[in-house]
Amino acid sequence: MTARKTSTSGRKAAVRASTPPPLRERKQELVRAALRDAALDLFLENGFEAVRVEEITDRAGVSRRTFFRYFASKDDLMAQGVDEFREVVRRVAEGSPRNARPLVLFRKIAAEVARISAAAPRSRDVVRIMLASPGARTAQMTRVAAVEDVLEEAFRSRCRGREERKTAGIFAAMTLAAVGAIMREWCLADGAPVERITEQVLRVLERSLLA
Fold it and tell me: What phi, psi does 173 have (nearest 5°)?
């Protein structure tokens, strides 16, 4: 009887997992995506600082009121990608070996996060906007501390001993900087595979660390 109940519960969970989100949620995601695409297009065309919310809503074909249902400001719109990035970092960190040494973990997380980030829709456009705009970089930096916290915990949970745990924050900041450098070089080297750029950047960093 217990096994039958467990089997039935498992099937129900599988059905729930495979059920598409409600129509309202799908519509909300479509509106959010339309606003983000309109904003990115305008940021690329005119520069982040010059674009007004009204221009974004006009391009997306929605009202100003609709914009503020999804974003507090254009800075918030620009920064929300960091929340998605944080979840990518969390998934990669959680899936990494528990016994990985700090330098091995640094390489694995940096390479995997860069690969996933580069594959995300319009990631190259986001990097271009950040490279061109101090305002866009400032907007994203407001949420970077949360990403560092995820990374620091990943390193601290794998450290052996008190002295090594003290280095968790250093490795977290270093990993975040490595991903940033990889994405920057990948954007500038238009057309080069991110895997090749990753190896080049990590070799430079590792040589500097071991020098």
Answer: -65, -40
